[in-house]
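Researcher: Let's do a round of design. I'm pasting the structure tokens now; please hold your answer until I've finished.
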């Protein structure tokens, strides 16, 4: 992975020199795209794509090995009654439960993602953050979701945030892809979302991710629009494609399809793939399965027809 080397003043000049975001315009465009309808003939494709980009997630203090095994079973066979339903992209868990997910998913092609770097606050020493990453990878994670130090970012210490991402990227090496969580609900402005997106990509992020899911607001369409514009422009200027993960608050099939439309219309078709776009969620999967069954049978199944995700 190639990162861009900056001195503190160069990094600040670059980030502060990025064009400002027109909040009203971003909200209007996101709102307009959210009204786009999907033809019935394309809806099955859209639902299947939405299932395939889900990072099925549980990040609770009450998580147990049994819960992780059940979640992995659902990841492998989302709809027990329909073997044609696609598998999800990944399971996302805490580092101490990675070994359980890795054992359950071995050979399936489903990724094992782990949050790290003192998730969700990011408030610890770099030494502890890197130990967190090493533990997750040693246990079998092939994706790491790190959180940035939002306090440092908001204080204007971009170099500290940049250096930490570089250090985590180096620790991941070839063993794991790195998703950098911006926690956009704490960044306050869309200008900051754009700056944080570029900072993370310049430091070597494979994905930029909206949220931990622990802070409100989490993923929103305007925020994701700004991040998609950033990855599109970054590829054009630097020749490297970076993925986007929207996480937190996406609970219905209708919401998921809105995000797919946003991806297609903003970044382009190249990002309509689990390698480049993810949705972090738990309860969303059941609604996607309900809508998928409705297309086939003409009637809705109750939510209890499917196994509980969380």
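Researcher: That's everything. Go ahead.
Model: Designed sequence:
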């Amino acid at each position: 992975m190639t990162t861009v080397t900056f001195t503190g003043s160069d990094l600040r000049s670059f980030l502060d020199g990025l064009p400002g975001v027109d909040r009203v315009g971003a909200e209007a465009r996101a709102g307009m795209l959210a009204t786009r309808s999907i033809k019935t003939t394309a809806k099955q494709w859209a639902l299947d794509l939405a299932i395939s980009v889900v990072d099925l997630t549980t990040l609770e203090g009450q998580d147990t090995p049994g819960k992780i095994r059940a979640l992995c079973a659902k990841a492998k066979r989302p709809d027990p009654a329909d073997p044609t339903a696609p598998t999800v992209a990944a399971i996302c868990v805490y580092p101490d439960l990675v070994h359980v997910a890795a054992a359950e998913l071995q050979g399936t092609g489903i990724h094992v993602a782990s949050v790290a770097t003192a998730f969700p606050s990011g408030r610890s020493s770099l030494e502890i953050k890197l130990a967190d990453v090493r533990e997750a990878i040693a246990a079998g994670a092939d994706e790491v979701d790190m959180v940035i130090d939002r306090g440092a970012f908001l204080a204007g210490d971009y170099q500290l945030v940049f250096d930490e991402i570089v250090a985590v990227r180096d620790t991941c090496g070839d063993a794991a892809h790195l998703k950098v969580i911006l926690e956009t609900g704490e960044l306050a402005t869309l200008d900051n979302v754009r700056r944080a997106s570029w900072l993370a990509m310049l430091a070597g992020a494979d994905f930029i991710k909206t949220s931990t899911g622990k802070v409100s607001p989490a993923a929103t369409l305007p925020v994701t629009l700004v991040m998609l514009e950033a990855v599109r422009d970054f590829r054009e200027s630097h020749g490297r494609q970076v993925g986007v993960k929207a996480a937190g608050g996406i609970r219905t099939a209708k919401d998921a399809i809105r995000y797919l439309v946003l991806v297609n219309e903003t970044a382009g078709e190249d990002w309509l793939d689990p390698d480049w776009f993810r949705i972090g969620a738990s309860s969303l999967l059941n609604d996607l399965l309900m809508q998928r069954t409705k297309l086939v049978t003409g009637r809705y199944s109750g939510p209890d027809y499917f196994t509980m995700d969380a």
